[in-house]
Description:
Number of helices: 2
Distance between the termini: 38 Å
Radius of gyration: 12 Å
Strand content: 25-35%
Strand order of the largest sheet: 2-1-7-4-3
Helix content: 10-25%
Number of strands: 7
Amino acid sequence: MITVVVKAPGEDPVVKQLDNNLEAVQKEVGGYFEVHGFDGRLTLYCNDGSANKYMAPNVVDLCHGAVLVGTVLVMNGDYGLKDFETPSVVENLKRRAVLAPVL
Protein backbone atom coordinates (compact mmCIF):
# COMPACT_ATOMS: atom_id res chain seq x y z
CA MET A 1 0.00 0.00 0.00
CA ILE A 2 1.11 3.58 -0.71
CA THR A 3 -0.11 6.93 0.57
CA VAL A 4 -1.53 9.35 -2.00
CA VAL A 5 -3.61 12.53 -2.01
CA VAL A 6 -6.75 12.42 -4.16
CA LYS A 7 -8.84 15.44 -5.15
CA ALA A 8 -12.17 15.13 -6.91
CA PRO A 9 -13.72 18.23 -8.56
CA GLY A 10 -15.51 20.43 -6.05
CA GLU A 11 -14.22 18.47 -3.07
CA ASP A 12 -11.36 18.91 -0.63
CA PRO A 13 -8.27 16.71 -1.14
CA VAL A 14 -8.15 13.54 0.94
CA VAL A 15 -5.29 11.27 1.97
CA LYS A 16 -5.83 7.65 0.89
CA GLN A 17 -4.04 4.34 0.88
CA LEU A 18 -3.88 2.60 -2.51
CA ASP A 19 -2.39 -0.61 -3.79
CA ASN A 20 0.90 0.21 -5.52
CA ASN A 21 -0.13 -0.82 -9.03
CA LEU A 22 -1.36 0.54 -12.34
CA GLU A 23 -4.92 -0.63 -11.88
CA ALA A 24 -5.35 1.25 -8.59
CA VAL A 25 -4.24 4.55 -10.17
CA GLN A 26 -6.47 3.99 -13.20
CA LYS A 27 -9.46 3.23 -10.99
CA GLU A 28 -8.92 6.41 -8.98
CA VAL A 29 -8.70 8.72 -12.03
CA GLY A 30 -11.28 6.88 -14.14
CA GLY A 31 -9.16 5.25 -16.83
CA TYR A 32 -5.89 5.76 -18.64
CA PHE A 33 -3.88 8.59 -17.12
CA GLU A 34 -1.42 11.30 -18.00
CA VAL A 35 1.35 12.48 -15.70
CA HIS A 36 2.24 16.03 -14.68
CA GLY A 37 5.03 17.32 -12.46
CA PHE A 38 3.83 18.68 -9.13
CA ASP A 39 5.99 20.79 -6.81
CA GLY A 40 9.30 19.54 -8.15
CA ARG A 41 9.71 15.94 -7.07
CA LEU A 42 6.07 14.85 -6.82
CA THR A 43 3.83 13.54 -9.59
CA LEU A 44 0.20 14.37 -10.37
CA TYR A 45 -1.91 11.85 -12.29
CA CYS A 46 -5.14 12.69 -14.12
CA ASN A 47 -7.36 11.02 -16.69
CA ASP A 48 -5.77 11.41 -20.13
CA GLY A 49 -9.07 11.50 -22.00
CA SER A 50 -10.93 13.57 -19.47
CA ALA A 51 -11.48 16.61 -21.69
CA ASN A 52 -13.30 14.38 -24.15
CA LYS A 53 -15.50 12.95 -21.39
CA TYR A 54 -16.72 16.37 -20.24
CA MET A 55 -15.36 15.89 -16.74
CA ALA A 56 -15.62 18.79 -14.30
CA PRO A 57 -12.71 21.24 -13.95
CA ASN A 58 -10.59 20.52 -10.89
CA VAL A 59 -7.12 22.05 -10.46
CA VAL A 60 -4.80 24.38 -12.35
CA ASP A 61 -1.50 23.00 -13.69
CA LEU A 62 0.76 25.98 -12.94
CA CYS A 63 3.59 24.68 -15.14
CA HIS A 64 1.48 24.56 -18.30
CA GLY A 65 -1.32 27.02 -17.48
CA ALA A 66 -3.93 24.33 -18.09
CA VAL A 67 -6.99 23.40 -16.09
CA LEU A 68 -6.98 19.70 -15.28
CA VAL A 69 -10.38 18.05 -15.15
CA GLY A 70 -11.72 15.03 -13.33
CA THR A 71 -10.19 13.43 -10.26
CA VAL A 72 -6.45 13.95 -9.75
CA LEU A 73 -4.02 11.96 -7.64
CA VAL A 74 -0.63 13.08 -6.26
CA MET A 75 2.16 10.77 -5.13
CA ASN A 76 5.93 10.60 -4.93
CA GLY A 77 6.91 8.50 -7.93
CA ASP A 78 6.21 4.83 -7.31
CA TYR A 79 6.64 5.12 -3.56
CA GLY A 80 3.66 7.11 -2.34
CA LEU A 81 3.88 10.09 -0.01
CA LYS A 82 5.64 10.31 3.33
CA ASP A 83 3.61 11.47 6.32
CA PHE A 84 5.40 14.83 6.40
CA GLU A 85 4.55 15.50 2.73
CA THR A 86 0.79 15.05 2.84
CA PRO A 87 -0.23 18.30 4.64
CA SER A 88 1.62 20.48 2.11
CA VAL A 89 0.19 18.54 -0.84
CA VAL A 90 -3.35 18.91 0.52
CA GLU A 91 -2.90 22.67 1.00
CA ASN A 92 -1.32 23.12 -2.44
CA LEU A 93 -4.22 21.30 -4.14
CA LYS A 94 -6.69 23.50 -2.25
CA ARG A 95 -4.91 26.63 -3.54
CA ARG A 96 -4.99 25.33 -7.12
CA ALA A 97 -8.64 24.28 -7.02
CA VAL A 98 -10.97 25.61 -9.66
CA LEU A 99 -13.82 27.21 -7.74
CA ALA A 100 -16.16 28.01 -10.62
CA PRO A 101 -16.94 26.29 -13.92
CA VAL A 102 -14.58 27.15 -16.75
CA LEU A 103 -16.51 28.29 -19.81
